[in-house]
Amino acid sequence: MILSMLIILAQTLLGNTVVSWAGIKASQSEKFLFSIISGFLIGSWILFLLNILLGLHWTTILVGIILMLLISSPRIKEIKIKISVKSIQNQVKKNKIVSIFFASVFFVFLYLHYTHYLEPKSDGLYSGGGTWGDIAIHLSIITSFVENSNSKIEYPVYLGVPLTYNFMVDFATAAWVAGGLAIRDAFVLMGVILSISSFLLFYFLAKNITRNSNIAIVATLLVLFTGGLGFIYFLEDKTSNLSQFRDYTNYPEKGINFWNLVGSILLPQRAYMAGFAVVFLIINSLWRWFDRKANPKELIFSALIMGLLPLFNWHIFLSVGIVSFILFLIDLFLEKKKLNFISERLRLWIIFFSIVTIFSLPQVFWTFSQVIDNVGKSFLALQLGWVAKDQNWLLFWIFNLGFLFVLSLPAFILAERKLKIFYLPFAALFFIANIFRFQPWDMDNLKIFYMWIPLNSILIASLLYSLFKKGIPYKIFFFAIVLISISSGFLSVARETQLSWMLFDNQDIELASWVRENTPKDSIFLTSSHHNHFVPTLAGRKIVMGYEGWLWVYGINYDQRKNDVEELFSGTPESLNMVQKYNVDYIVIGPKETSMFSINDSFFLENFEVVKQQKDVRIFKINRI
Fold first, then answer.
1. Confidence (pTM)
2. DSSP SS3 for 585
3. Which of 112, 153, 346, 604 is 20 to 30 A away from residue 231, measured at CA?
4. Rounded CA gap, 284 and 279, in Å?
5. What is the SS3 assignment for 238?
6. What average pLDDT does this structure show over 194-200?
C-alpha cells in the first residue's frame, strides 16, 4: 500500500512540474487539479513503458516512482506548502455554495463507487446498474496485468489477439494494485479522484469562460444530471421503490436513448471516466489560447496531454482532435483577416499538431490495427439521425434532451461573440455524431455527444442566468427550466444508488483463489463466455473466448472460434485437436458451461485429470506429452 501511495504522490509532483513549466495562469485549486490529472496521465505512461521492459512488480513500481521524482526534483525544491485550517475555513466561507455543492457531489460519487465496485457482502461481491456488466472486462484486464504483466498486450478474454481497446486506465489501476492496494480500494480511490476532478475542472472551465461562479454551478448541474423529458413517465410509475423505477434517461420503448452521464457512462466505462477528466485540461488550455491568455508553453502542454490520450479513450481523443482542428481553422481565418497569415500563432498550431501526431500516431495504429477491415461497415459507418430511426429527428432530440436542446439556438444567438465562436467546434460534434456511427454499437456515439454537452450547458446556463437577474417572474422561469432539465438525470442517479446485484458468489472467490495459487500465471483456460466468469476476472488467467458482446464492440470476428469452443466442449474426436490448437492448459466445467454448451462429460473424465472439484464446478488439467 505504501508504494501505491508513493505512486500517487510521485504522479502529482510530476504533474505539478509539467504544469509549472507550462506557466499556466490559473488559481491554486485549478493548478492542483491540473497536477493530479496530468501527472496521472504521464506517470501511468511511464509505468506502462517500464512494464513492457521489466514486467509489473514492486521493483518496476519503485523504478517508476524514482524516475518520476527525478524528473520532478527541480520543482520539489521550490514547493512551499502553506496550508492551515484557518485558510481552508476562509476559502469555504468565501465559496460556501460551491463548497456545499461539490461536497455533495463528492459523497454521491464516493457512495456510488463504494457500492458498485466489488462491494463485499456475506454471500459474495456486488455491483449494480451498467457497472455490473462492464466491471468484469476491467477486472479481467487489470488482473491480467497484475498476475502476468500482460507484456504481449493481448485481450485476456480472447486468446492471441492484441488488446487495442482503451486499456490504459486499467493498467494504471493494475499499477496501484501491484503497489499494494487491494483491487477494490484501487477501483474506488481512482474512480472518486477522476470523477470529482472531472466536474471540478469543468466548473473552472465554465467559470473561466463566463467569469461567473453561479453560471458555472448551473452548467455543472446540467451536465451532472443531463436527461430529457423522460421524467414525465415517473408519474405513471406505481412503485415507491427507487430500485424498481425505470431509468428515465434510458427508455427505448418510449424513444428515450440519451443516457445520463453518471450511472450509465462514467461509472461503468472507466476509460471514459479517465478521458473525461483529462479532456478538461485540454479544453481549459484551448480556451485560454483562444482567449489570448495562454502562453505558447501551455499550448504545447495541451498537445502533450492530447497526444497521450488515445489508449485512455479514443472517442475523447477523436472529439478533442476535431475540436482542435476546427479551432485552428477559425484561428487561421481570423489571423488571415488581420493580414498576418504566417504568424507566430500559426507556427505554434503547427507545433501543436506535430506533437499530438508524434505521440498519438503509434497508439492510433495500434488501436485500429484489428478493425481496419471494418471501417465503413461496423466502424465509422453512415447512420443518419443516430438512433432516431423513423422518428421525427427534431422531436427525438426535444424529447431526449428537453431544454438542453430547445434552448441551444437562442442561447447561441444571445451569447457573447467569443463564446459563440469557441462553441462552434463542439456543436460540430453534435452534427457529426448524428451522421456517423463510430463503433458497431450505436450507443457508443454518446461518448461523442457528451463532448458537446458541457459547452452546450455553459451556453444555456449563461442564457438562464441572464434571465434570472431580470426579476421575480424570470427567477421562477429559471428554476422551472433548471428543474425540468435535471429531473430525469436526477432520478437516474437516485435509482443508481439503490442498485446492487451479485457479481461473484463466495464459490467464485474461492475457486479464483485456488487458480491463482495452483496454476502457472501464463496458463490458458477454456471456459464459458459468461462476462462474470471467475477465471479471467478474479484469477487473472487468459481464456480462449469470453463474452461475445465485448468482442463484437471491439470489432473481433469470433464466429470460427465460437464454433471451435462448441466443438471442444461437445467431446468429439476433433476436440483433442482443438485443445492442441489453442494450447489449452485447463478446462472449467460448471453451471455456467453446462448452461451454454452440450457437454460430453465422459469424454473429459476419460481424457483429462480433475485437479479441483468444488460443489458442481470441476477444473480439468490437460497433461501434454
1. 0.94
2. coil
3. 112
4. 9
5. coil
6. 97
Show Cβ contacts of residue 130 under 8 Å, excluding neighbours closer than 6 positions. Answer: 263, 264, 265, 267, 268, 269
- Give the count of beta carbons closer than 10 Å to the beta carbon of residue 185: 16
pLDDT digits (tens, 9 = 90+) for 401-413: 999 999 999 999 9
| Residue at grid coordinates 439503490 | 498
Give residue for cell 505554434: 348
Q: Closest Cα to residue 573, out of 607, 550, 545, 541?
A: 607
| CB-based burial label for 241 (10 Å; 0-12, 13-18, 19+) | exposed
Strand partners, 531: none
549 and 576 Cβ atoms separated by less than 8 Å: no
* Cβ neighbours for 243, distance < 8 A, ≥ 6 positions apart: 495, 498, 499, 500
C-alpha cell at 520: 502457472
94's CB contacts (< 8 A; 6+ apart) are: none
Q: In 383-416, which ranges are continuous DSSP H helix?
A: 393-401, 403-406, 408-414
What span, in angstroms and rounded, lies between the C-alpha atoms of 152 and 240? 51
Q: What count of Cα atoms within 13 Å lies in the side-chain half-sphere of residue 493?
A: 23
Helix, strand, or coil here: 621? strand
DSSP conformation letters of 478-506: HHHHHHHHHHHHHHHHHHHTT--EEEEEH
Is there a contact between 123 and 492 (Cβ–Cβ < 8 Å)?
no
Residues 602-610 have a mean pLDDT of 92
DSSP label at 231?
G
User: Residues with Cβ < 8 Å from 211, sequence gap 6 or more?
Assistant: none
* Cell numbers given for 179: 503497489
For residue 102, the 8-state DSSP code is H
Best CA proximity match to 36, nearest among 64, 15, 67: 15
pLDDT at 339: 47
- For residue 345, which of 392, 276, 391, 299 has the smallest C-alpha distance? 299
- Contact status, residue 141 vs residue 167, Cβ threshold 8 Å: yes
H, E, C per residue of 500-551: CEEEEEHHHHHHHHHHHHHCCCCCEEECCCCCCCHHHHCCCCEECECCHHHH
Q: Are 438 and 376 in contact (CB under 8 A)?
A: no
Q: Is the pLDDT of residue 295 over 80?
A: yes
Torsion, Cα 33 36 41 46, to 10 degrees, reads: 150
Bigger pLDDT: 316 or 368?
316
The Cα–Cα gap between 248 and 402 comes to: 13
| Residues in the chain, overall count | 625
SS3 call for 348: helix
The number of CA neighbours under 13 Å toward the Cβ of 494 is 15
Q: Using CA atoms, how far apart are residues 16 and 22, in angstroms rounded to an integer?
A: 10
Query: Rounded to whole angstroms, how far apart are CA atoms 601 and 127?
Result: 33
Q: Which sign, positive or negative, has the C-alpha torsion 32, 34, 37, 38? A: negative
Q: Kindly report each contact of residues 187-191 with a partner whose C-beta sits within 8 Å and lies 24 or more positions away, as own/partner.
A: 187/113, 187/117, 187/118, 187/135, 188/110, 188/113, 188/114, 188/117, 191/109, 191/113, 191/117, 191/267, 191/270, 191/273
Q: Is 586 helix (H, G, I), strand (E, B) or coil?
A: strand
The grid cell for 503 is 457479481
- pLDDT by residue (tens digit) across 488-534? 999 999 999 999 999 999 999 999 999 999 999 999 999 999 999 99
Asked if 186 contacts 1 with a C-beta cutoff of 8 angstroms, the reply is no
